[in-house]
Protein backbone atom coordinates (compact mmCIF):
# COMPACT_ATOMS: atom_id res chain seq x y z
CA UNK A 1 0.00 0.00 0.00
CA UNK A 2 1.24 3.52 -0.79
CA UNK A 3 2.23 5.63 2.18
CA UNK A 4 0.60 8.98 2.95
CA UNK A 5 3.11 11.80 2.47
CA UNK A 6 2.44 15.19 4.03
CA UNK A 7 3.63 17.60 1.36
CA UNK A 8 2.74 20.78 3.24
CA UNK A 9 0.51 21.53 6.20
CA UNK A 10 -0.38 24.70 8.09
CA UNK A 11 -3.46 26.40 9.51
CA UNK A 12 -4.85 27.45 6.14
CA UNK A 13 -4.40 24.31 4.06
CA UNK A 14 -2.77 20.90 3.80
CA UNK A 15 -1.60 18.84 0.84
CA UNK A 16 -1.17 15.06 1.09
CA UNK A 17 0.20 12.63 -1.48
CA UNK A 18 -0.83 9.00 -1.84
CA UNK A 19 0.85 7.39 -4.82
CA UNK A 20 0.02 9.44 -7.89
CA UNK A 21 -2.79 11.40 -6.22
CA UNK A 22 -2.47 14.72 -4.40
CA UNK A 23 -5.24 15.59 -1.94
CA UNK A 24 -5.54 19.30 -1.15
CA UNK A 25 -7.62 20.38 1.85
CA UNK A 26 -8.30 24.11 2.11
CA UNK A 27 -10.14 26.03 4.82
CA UNK A 28 -11.16 28.64 2.24
CA UNK A 29 -13.15 27.11 -0.60
CA UNK A 30 -12.91 30.36 -2.57
CA UNK A 31 -9.21 29.59 -3.09
CA UNK A 32 -10.11 26.14 -4.39
CA UNK A 33 -12.74 27.68 -6.69
CA UNK A 34 -10.02 29.91 -8.16
CA UNK A 35 -7.59 27.01 -8.50
CA UNK A 36 -10.03 24.78 -10.39
CA UNK A 37 -11.25 27.57 -12.68
CA UNK A 38 -7.75 28.88 -13.37
CA UNK A 39 -6.49 25.43 -14.33
CA UNK A 40 -9.43 25.04 -16.70
CA UNK A 41 -8.59 28.38 -18.36
CA UNK A 42 -4.78 28.08 -18.44
CA UNK A 43 -3.24 27.43 -21.89
CA UNK A 44 -0.35 25.46 -20.37
CA UNK A 45 -0.29 21.96 -18.79
CA UNK A 46 -1.85 21.67 -15.33
CA UNK A 47 -2.74 18.72 -13.07
CA UNK A 48 -5.84 16.71 -13.92
CA UNK A 49 -8.70 17.28 -11.49
CA UNK A 50 -9.75 13.78 -10.39
CA UNK A 51 -12.60 14.85 -8.12
CA UNK A 52 -13.70 17.58 -5.75
CA UNK A 53 -15.68 17.17 -2.55
CA UNK A 54 -15.28 20.22 -0.29
CA UNK A 55 -13.08 20.78 1.56
CA UNK A 56 -10.95 18.35 -0.49
CA UNK A 57 -9.62 18.51 -4.06
CA UNK A 58 -7.92 15.49 -5.64
CA UNK A 59 -5.36 16.09 -8.38
CA UNK A 60 -3.29 13.70 -10.46
CA UNK A 61 0.48 13.95 -10.07
CA UNK A 62 2.39 15.59 -12.90
CA UNK A 63 5.22 13.75 -14.64
CA UNK A 64 8.74 15.01 -14.07
CA UNK A 65 10.24 16.89 -11.14
CA UNK A 66 10.13 20.42 -9.79
CA UNK A 67 12.35 22.96 -11.54
CA UNK A 68 14.14 23.55 -8.23
CA UNK A 69 13.78 24.63 -4.62
CA UNK A 70 14.35 27.97 -2.96
CA UNK A 71 17.66 28.00 -1.13
CA UNK A 72 19.14 25.09 -3.13
CA UNK A 73 20.96 24.94 -6.49
CA UNK A 74 18.60 23.92 -9.27
CA UNK A 75 19.38 20.61 -10.99
CA UNK A 76 17.47 21.73 -14.10
CA UNK A 77 19.22 22.67 -17.33
CA UNK A 78 19.33 26.22 -18.75
CA UNK A 79 17.01 24.95 -21.49
CA UNK A 80 14.47 23.83 -18.87
CA UNK A 81 14.57 27.29 -17.30
CA UNK A 82 14.06 28.77 -20.74
CA UNK A 83 11.08 26.47 -21.25
CA UNK A 84 9.63 27.75 -17.98
CA UNK A 85 9.99 31.29 -19.29
CA UNK A 86 8.24 30.28 -22.51
CA UNK A 87 5.38 28.69 -20.53
CA UNK A 88 4.99 31.91 -18.55
CA UNK A 89 4.79 33.89 -21.80
CA UNK A 90 2.08 31.54 -23.14
CA UNK A 91 0.09 32.04 -19.95
CA UNK A 92 0.53 35.81 -19.99
CA UNK A 93 -0.61 36.02 -23.62
CA UNK A 94 -3.94 34.35 -22.76
CA UNK A 95 -7.04 36.38 -21.78
CA UNK A 96 -6.90 37.27 -18.06
CA UNK A 97 -9.45 35.55 -15.80
CA UNK A 98 -12.60 37.56 -14.99
CA UNK A 99 -12.10 37.89 -11.24
CA UNK A 100 -10.18 40.86 -9.77
CA UNK A 101 -6.48 40.79 -9.01
CA UNK A 102 -4.29 42.69 -6.55
CA UNK A 103 -4.37 46.45 -7.08
CA UNK A 104 -1.41 48.81 -6.94
CA UNK A 105 -2.84 50.25 -3.70
CA UNK A 106 -2.97 46.73 -2.22
CA UNK A 107 0.66 46.13 -3.16
CA UNK A 108 1.78 49.44 -1.61
CA UNK A 109 -0.23 48.84 1.59
CA UNK A 110 1.24 45.36 2.02
CA UNK A 111 4.73 46.77 1.62
CA UNK A 112 4.07 49.41 4.30
CA UNK A 113 2.56 46.89 6.71
CA UNK A 114 5.19 44.17 6.38
CA UNK A 115 8.16 46.54 6.57
CA UNK A 116 6.76 48.03 9.77
CA UNK A 117 6.27 44.55 11.26
CA UNK A 118 9.78 43.39 10.37
CA UNK A 119 11.34 46.44 12.03
CA UNK A 120 9.06 46.40 15.09
CA UNK A 121 9.83 42.72 15.74
CA UNK A 122 13.59 42.95 15.08
CA UNK A 123 13.41 40.26 12.41
CA UNK A 124 15.96 42.11 10.29
CA UNK A 125 18.15 45.16 10.85
CA UNK A 126 16.18 48.30 10.05
CA UNK A 127 18.69 49.39 7.40
CA UNK A 128 18.24 46.08 5.51
CA UNK A 129 14.46 46.55 5.58
CA UNK A 130 14.67 50.16 4.48
CA UNK A 131 17.09 49.44 1.62
CA UNK A 132 14.89 46.62 0.35
CA UNK A 133 11.86 48.85 0.63
CA UNK A 134 13.52 51.39 -1.65
CA UNK A 135 14.33 48.61 -4.12
CA UNK A 136 10.76 47.23 -3.90
CA UNK A 137 9.20 50.63 -4.60
CA UNK A 138 10.42 50.35 -8.22
CA UNK A 139 7.67 47.73 -8.72
CA UNK A 140 4.99 50.22 -7.58
CA UNK A 141 4.04 51.43 -11.03
CA UNK A 142 1.03 50.82 -13.28
CA UNK A 143 1.05 47.52 -15.19
CA UNK A 144 -1.08 45.97 -17.90
CA UNK A 145 -2.88 43.03 -16.26
CA UNK A 146 -2.16 39.59 -17.74
CA UNK A 147 -3.23 36.06 -16.83
CA UNK A 148 -0.82 35.72 -13.90
CA UNK A 149 -0.23 32.54 -11.92
CA UNK A 150 0.44 34.64 -8.83
CA UNK A 151 2.69 32.11 -7.05
CA UNK A 152 5.00 30.81 -9.78
CA UNK A 153 7.64 29.39 -7.46
CA UNK A 154 10.27 26.98 -8.79
CA UNK A 155 8.60 24.19 -6.81
CA UNK A 156 5.37 24.79 -8.72
CA UNK A 157 6.89 24.29 -12.21
CA UNK A 158 7.52 20.68 -13.23
CA UNK A 159 9.92 19.64 -15.97
CA UNK A 160 11.05 16.43 -17.62
CA UNK A 161 14.42 17.01 -19.22
CA UNK A 162 14.14 20.32 -21.04
CA UNK A 163 10.32 20.33 -21.27
CA UNK A 164 7.72 21.80 -18.91
CA UNK A 165 5.24 19.06 -17.98
CA UNK A 166 2.93 21.25 -15.92
CA UNK A 167 2.39 23.97 -13.34
CA UNK A 168 0.66 23.43 -9.98
CA UNK A 169 -0.92 25.52 -7.20
CA UNK A 170 -3.18 28.01 -9.00
CA UNK A 171 -5.06 29.41 -5.99
CA UNK A 172 -3.42 32.86 -6.40
CA UNK A 173 -4.15 33.13 -10.13
CA UNK A 174 -5.67 36.46 -11.20
CA UNK A 175 -5.05 39.40 -13.50
CA UNK A 176 -1.66 40.71 -12.45
CA UNK A 177 1.80 41.94 -13.39
CA UNK A 178 3.69 39.60 -15.72
CA UNK A 179 7.00 40.62 -14.13
CA UNK A 180 5.78 39.48 -10.70
CA UNK A 181 5.46 35.94 -12.07
CA UNK A 182 8.95 36.10 -13.58
CA UNK A 183 10.34 37.45 -10.33
CA UNK A 184 8.66 34.72 -8.27
CA UNK A 185 10.04 32.07 -10.62
CA UNK A 186 13.61 33.36 -10.34
CA UNK A 187 13.58 34.38 -6.64
CA UNK A 188 16.79 33.04 -5.12
CA UNK A 189 17.84 31.74 -8.56
CA UNK A 190 19.03 34.94 -10.18
CA UNK A 191 21.68 33.01 -12.09
CA UNK A 192 18.84 31.64 -14.26
CA UNK A 193 17.15 34.99 -14.91
CA UNK A 194 18.75 35.34 -18.35
CA UNK A 195 17.55 31.83 -19.31
CA UNK A 196 13.99 32.64 -18.24
CA UNK A 197 13.96 35.98 -20.04
CA UNK A 198 15.35 34.35 -23.21
CA UNK A 199 12.59 31.76 -23.10
CA UNK A 200 10.00 34.42 -22.35
CA UNK A 201 10.95 36.12 -25.60
CA UNK A 202 10.07 39.72 -24.77
CA UNK A 203 11.81 42.78 -23.42
CA UNK A 204 11.46 42.94 -19.64
CA UNK A 205 12.60 45.50 -17.09
CA UNK A 206 15.13 43.65 -14.94
CA UNK A 207 15.02 46.39 -12.28
CA UNK A 208 11.31 45.70 -11.80
CA UNK A 209 11.97 41.97 -11.47
CA UNK A 210 14.59 42.68 -8.80
CA UNK A 211 12.11 45.03 -7.11
CA UNK A 212 9.55 42.21 -6.96
CA UNK A 213 12.24 39.97 -5.40
CA UNK A 214 12.47 42.41 -2.51
CA UNK A 215 8.71 42.99 -2.31
CA UNK A 216 7.84 39.28 -2.24
CA UNK A 217 10.52 38.51 0.35
CA UNK A 218 9.46 41.40 2.59
CA UNK A 219 5.83 40.33 2.30
CA UNK A 220 6.23 36.62 3.01
CA UNK A 221 8.61 36.52 6.00
CA UNK A 222 5.92 37.17 8.62
CA UNK A 223 3.56 34.59 7.07
CA UNK A 224 6.31 31.97 7.09
CA UNK A 225 7.18 32.62 10.72
CA UNK A 226 3.55 32.62 11.86
CA UNK A 227 2.88 29.32 10.05
CA UNK A 228 5.92 27.53 11.44
CA UNK A 229 8.29 27.75 8.47
CA UNK A 230 11.91 28.87 8.42
CA UNK A 231 12.20 32.05 6.34
CA UNK A 232 15.98 31.89 5.95
CA UNK A 233 15.94 31.70 2.10
CA UNK A 234 13.85 34.89 1.90
CA UNK A 235 15.99 36.55 4.56
CA UNK A 236 19.06 35.64 2.50
CA UNK A 237 17.49 37.27 -0.55
CA UNK A 238 16.79 40.45 1.41
CA UNK A 239 20.33 40.63 2.74
CA UNK A 240 21.75 40.07 -0.75
CA UNK A 241 19.43 42.69 -2.25
CA UNK A 242 20.51 45.28 0.30
Describe the structure.
With 242 residues, this protein is α+β, with helices and mostly antiparallel strands. The chain has a single domain (64-241), classed as Aminoglycoside 3'-phosphotransferase, Chain: A, domain 2 (Alpha-Beta Complex), CATH 3.90.1200.10. 43% of the residues lie in helices and 19% in strands. The chain has helices at residues 29-41, 78-92, 104-120, 126-136, 178-186, 193-200, 206-226, 232-241; strands spanning 4-9, 13-18, 21-26, 49-53, 56-60, 65-66, 146-148, 157-160, 163-167, 174-176. Strands 1-2-3-5-4 form a 5-stranded antiparallel sheet. A hairpin with a 2-residue loop joins β4 (49-53) and β5 (56-60). α3 (104-120) packs across α7 (206-226) and α7 (206-226) runs antiparallel to α8 (232-241). The termini are far apart. The model has no long low-confidence stretch (mean pLDDT 97).
CATH class label: Alpha Beta
Enumerate how many helices there are, as a single number: 8
User: Could you name the CATH topology?
Assistant: Aminoglycoside 3'-phosphotransferase, Chain: A, domain 2
Spatial sequence of strands, sheet with the most strands: 1-2-3-5-4
- The overall strand count is 10
Largest sheet: 5 strands, antiparallel
Shape label: globular
Q: Topology as H/E string?
A: EEEHEEEHHHEEEEHHHH
- Alpha-carbon Rg, integer: 18 Å
CATH architecture descriptor name: Alpha-Beta Complex
Helix and strand content put the structural class at: alpha+beta
Mean pLDDT, nearest integer? Answer: 97
Strand content: 15-25%
State the end-to-end CA separation: 50 Å
Helix content: 40-55%
Organism: Actinomadura harenae
GO molecular function: transferase activity
Pfam families: APH
InterPro entries: AGP_Transferase (IPR051678), Aminoglycoside_PTrfase (IPR002575), Kinase-like_dom_sf (IPR011009)
